[in-house]
Sequence to fold (453 residues):
Amino acid sequence: MIRESLNSRYDIALSELEARTCHSWKMRLDCSKVMTDVVTISGGASPQPIMRSAEGCRITDIDNNQYIDLCMGFGTNLLGHKPHIVQQALIAQIAKGWNFGFSNEGQLALAELICSAGASNERALLCGSGAEATATAMRAARAYTGKDVIGVFTGAYHGGHDQSLITADSEHVSQKVHIGLGIPLALDEVIEPLVYGSSSAFQRIRDLRHSLAAIIVEPVQSSEPKSHDGTWLRDLQSVCHECGVLVILDEVTTGFRLAFGGAQERFSLSPDLVTYGKVMAGGLPMGSVAGRTDIMKVFAPKDESPAVFSGSAFGGNVMSVSAALATLSFLREHKDTLYNDLDSATDRLTKSVNARWAAANAPIILEQCSSIFKLVFKTPKTFASKHDLDDARRAEDTFFVHLLDRGITLHTSRTGYLSTAHTHEDVDFIIEAMSGAFNESAADGCFANLQTS
Ligand code: PMP
Fold:
C-alpha cells in the first residue's frame, strides 16, 4: 500500500501514516471481505485507524498509536472515555447481570434525574438508542393528535430510521429527498420538510395545521452547530402551540451537553416532547423520550384504551441504566462549573484556530456551539467543473491526513466534541495540530484554486 513516489507533503504524511498504521490497513482489507462497516471502511482517502482502547481524551489504535480524540464516541463521552465513575458503576453491575428484560431497580432514579433536567419532562420513557427515541416520539405525537404528518427540518438528523431519512434541499424545499436508497415513497406522504431557521416554516406550519401532528427539531444542528440565542426556536414553539402542532425537541446531541437541562434550559424552551440519547449514558447505548404527562400517557393509558407501542430488547437495560445513573448524577452535581469550563475550553480552541486561519485567509473555519464544533470548508456550493469538485475533495482529504498524522482523530463527518477530559495542554496541542494541518495542506497548493463562497 505504501506509495512509491513521494511527491508532496501529502504523500509523505500518508505514507508515514500507512507505515505506522499497517495493521489497521491490513485489517480494513480483511474486513471488507466479510463485513460492512460504513464507519471504518468508508473513510475516503483519509485512512481511519482501527481502535483498540481509549481513556480520557486519548484513543489508541491496533498498532499502538495514540491520538487525542475529538470524535469522543460521536459526542457520547462528555466525561471522556472510560471515566472512573462510569467504569465503577459498570463493574458493580456486571457482577449482578446485564440484561434482564424486566424492569430494574435503577430505572426509577434515572427517570427522576431525566425529569429534573427540564420542566417539560414530567415523565420519561427509556429506550435503547436516540433513533428509537425519535421514532417513538413521532408515533406518540401521531397517536395523541390523531394527525399523521411530521414536520422535519432541512439539514436535520434524527437517527437511522426511514422517516428521519426524508428531507429536502434548502433551496428546493417542496422536493423531498431521501438520504440513501430503500426508503418507501409512501412515507413521503407523512413527512413535511421545512426550512430550518426560516420564517417560511411558520407559514407552512399554519397552512398544514390540520394534518401536522408535530414538528421535530434539533435545537442546534450537528450538521451546522452555530451559536444562537434561541429566538427562532421560541418563535417556532409559539407558532406550533398556536396551531395545535406538538413540538418534539430532539436533544439527542444537545441534551446534558449544552447544560444539564440541555437546550431546553439554555434557550428557555417548553417543548411537548423531548428526545435524549448520547451523553446521558456516558458512552453506553440508551435513549429516552420525556414530556408532558397527558401526552406520555399514550404509552400506558390507565383505562382499557389502546396504547402506543414502545420497547426493545435493550431499552432501559440495566448496564446502560447504571452508566446513565453515574453520569447524570455527576453532571447534575457539578453542573454549575462543569458546563462553563467545558464551553470556555471549546471557545478557546475554536477562537484560536479561527484567528490563525483568518490571518492566513484560509477557506476553512470551525463553527461551534457550546462544546460541539464542526470543521467547515468554505468551498463554493456549486462547482464549475468536476475538476473543481475533485480539487475541493482533495483539499479536505489532505487536511484530514495531516491532522491524523499530527495525532488528532476527528470523524470524517467533521463534527467534533470536547470533553471534560481534554486539558488545557490538550487544547493547545489540538490548536497547533489544526493550524499545522492547514499549513501543510496549503503548502501543497491544495487550497490555492478554491475560490471561497
Ligand atoms: N437525533 C440526533 C439529533 C442525533 O444527533 C442522533 C445521532 N447522531 C440521533 C437522533 C440518533 O441517535 P442514535 O445514533 O443513538 O440512534
Summary: The mean pLDDT is 92. The pocket of 4'-deoxy-4'-aminopyridoxal-5'-phosphate is lined by residues 74, 129-131, 134, 157-159, 218, 222, 250, 252-253, 277, 287 (CB under 6 Å).
